[in-house]
Sequence to fold (270 residues):
Amino acid sequence: MCGGAPGRLSRSGGCGRIAVSMADNDGSSPTSRPRSRRSHIVRLGVFAGFLLGMFYLVAVARVIDVEEMRRAVSATGPAAPLTYVVVSAVLGALFVPGSILAAGSGMLFGPVLGIFVTLGAAVGTAVVASRIGRRAGRDSARALLGTKRADSIDALIERRGLWAVVGQRFIPGISDALASYAFGAFGVPLWQMAIGSFIGSAPRAFAYTALGASIKNLSSPLAYSAIAVWCVSAVVGAFAARRGYQRWRGHARRGRDSGMPDPDREAGTC
Fold:
C-alpha cells in the first residue's frame, strides 16, 4: 500500500517513484505519437509523389511507345488477345490512358472481341493498382484517420464499396488507375474492385473500343453509337458525382450537429 502512516513515508515515496517509472515506460510519451504520425505522413507523401511522377512520365511525357507495344502484341498470333489483356493491365496501372489502350484493342481485334479484351484489361488494372495501394498506404491511412474513423469507413466500404467503384468509373476526367490506388489504400476488397470495374467500365470500354474499330470510317453507325454511349455515361457520371458529394456533405453536417466525437481529439486527451 502506498498510502499509510507518516512513519512509512519512505515506502510511499518508493511507490511514487515506481508509478512515475511505469508512466514513463508505457510507450505513450508525448513525442512518440507525433513522431509515428509524421512517419505515416512521410510514407504517404512518398507514395503520392511516386504516383504523380509516374503519371507525368507516362501520361504527359509519353515515355512508353504504345504503338510499339501494340505491334509486339500483334506478333504473338493467336495469343494476342490474352497478351494484350496482360500488357494493357500493367500499362494501365502505369497511367497509360485507358482510352488509348481501348482504342488499340478495337483496332487489333474488332468491336466484339475488342470489348472483352478491354474489359479484361480494365479489371486487371483495377486489381493491380488497388493491391499496390493497399500494400503501400493502407496502414498509414488507418493510422492517420484514427481507429474509430477508420472503422466507420471500413463499415461504409463493406456496404457501398462496390457501387463507389462503379460510380467512379462513370465520372469523366478521373484516372481509373489513380482512383484504384486510392481505393486500395482505403481498403476496398479486391472482389469489389474487380466486379465494380467490370460493371462501371463497360460503357466507356464499348465507346473507346468501337471508336478504335471504326477509326477508318468515323461516319459509320458504330462510331456514332460509341459517341452516344460516351456522352450518356458522362452525364450519368456527373450526376452521380454531384449526388454523392451532396450525400457526403449531409452526412458530415449531421455528424457535427449530433456532436459526434473526434477520434483524433479523443486520442490526444487520453
